[in-house]
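Consider the following assembly input.
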Amino acid sequence: DAGVIQSPRHEVTEMGQEVTLRCKPISGHNSLFWYRQTMMRGLELLIYFNNNVPIDDSGMPEDRFSAKMPNASFSTLKIQPSEPRDSAVYFCASSRRDSSTDTQYFGPGTRLTVL
Amino acid sequence: GESVGLHLPTLSVQEGDNSIINCAYSNSASDYFIWYKQESGKGPQFIIDIRSNMDKRQGQRVTVLLNKTVKHLSLQIAATQPGDSAVYFCAENIYGNKLVFGAGTILRVKS
């Protein structure tokens, strides 16, 4: 089975540019999570969706960040305008909420560098 | 310039020895806990989980112990192998399906 798919794997952009990160969750999973990982702050939850609906976006740093999930098989995380401090690895994870497990499975991540 | 960031604890073990990685969690209401392994350049990979109604769970070469009294979680790896070298994270389910991750522990296996 395919795991969580993220694209691009690497992104280098200049300050002020718009960046869009993409995620395809595992088929059948109904929860999707966006995380950011940095040396300074570790792994932080930015936002998560249940059944395509945003549930908790309290981790989104500021209005420059936005996330959408138009359908069960696709989500985007957008940064506009990007800043050097946004440089990090961004992970998408998905899970299937049922009575037995809420295990989140992570994608390979997108390494973002903002110059 | 000076490098600033999280200073992760490091556990160095000899190949073949057992490893024990510890984690303190924050919320006494947390009901679900997971251990993840992260290798360089990859996303966190699920290892084993445990619910709060249990105090021990075993997998293949791994055991998770939960002590709710002192809010402590540990991961035991038997017969540690070079491929076990990675950063290990514990995570607790605070509410709903929102996980909070610990800072991580670096495991280095010496051959």
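Chain A has a mean pLDDT of 93. Ask yourself how this observation constrains the way the partners meet.
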